[in-house]
Specification:
Length: about 200
């Protein structure tokens, strides 16, 4: 009887409305994409699987567009979810969809765009976001002292994530500068860091 009750409770929880915020869900989606992409790139680099760089770039750009349109979140930072942001998101999504369907037309444009966005976005955080957050952690208000270890973990995760983003951006702008296996590792680390970031943010929220 006890086991039946536990099973029933588990099923009820499984079909309950998820309390996960939309922003966290999108970050998890991007994390899954990056981890799966990074894993698949290993056999691709060994010549065991066919690969479409246009599909990869197009999908990354579409997910960036979804973040912009739904949350106002961009690689350059968080902005107000305005009609201007929605229109930019639509433009990005259109470019990504065209890249997935018609290979070769926008490959270089999207690659350079993603490269610049990742480098600039990572640099902005390291130059502005990191100092302000670090200063706040060094002099926390009384109500945040109990959660100080979590905020420190969040800062370290965000810092590493942005360094990895810059590395990914450089690999986009200068293809061939590092081996495909290193790029695969960078992409997997990026995805795993997104999972860790969501976990830390859930503890804070």
């Amino acid at each position: 009887m006890a086991s039946d009750t536990i099973t029933s409770d588990s099923r009820c929880r499984l079909f309950r409305e998820a309390s996960l915020q939309l922003s966290f869900a999108i970050i998890l989606l991007l994390g899954v994409l990056l981890v799966v992409l990074g894993i698949l790139l290993f056999p691709v680099n060994l010549g065991l699987l066919p690969f479409s760089p246009d599909g990869q770039l197009g999908l990354l750009l579409v997910l960036t567009a979804v973040q912009m349109m739904a949350l106002g979140s961009t690689p350059l930072g968080q902005f107000k979810r305005s009609w201007f942001m929605v229109l930019i998101g639509i433009g990005f999504a259109s470019m990504g969809i065209i890249s997935c369907i018609v290979p070769g037309i926008l490959t270089d444009i999207i690659r350079e765009l993603l490269g610049f966005l990742n480098i600039i976005g990572g640099g902005i955080f390291l130059l502005t976001g990191f100092p302000s957050t670090y200063k706040a952690i060094q002099n926390p208000p009384p109500e945040l002292i109990s959660k100080l270890p979590i905020y420190k973990k969040m800062l370290s995760t965000q810092t590493i994530l942005n360094i990895v983003s810059i590395s990914f951006g450089v690999s986009m702008l200068f293809p061939g500068i590092v081996s495909g296996f290193i790029i695969s590792g960078i992409i997997i680390i990026n995805g795993l860091l997104l999972f860790l970031l969501v976990r830390v943010l859930l503890k804070i929220s």
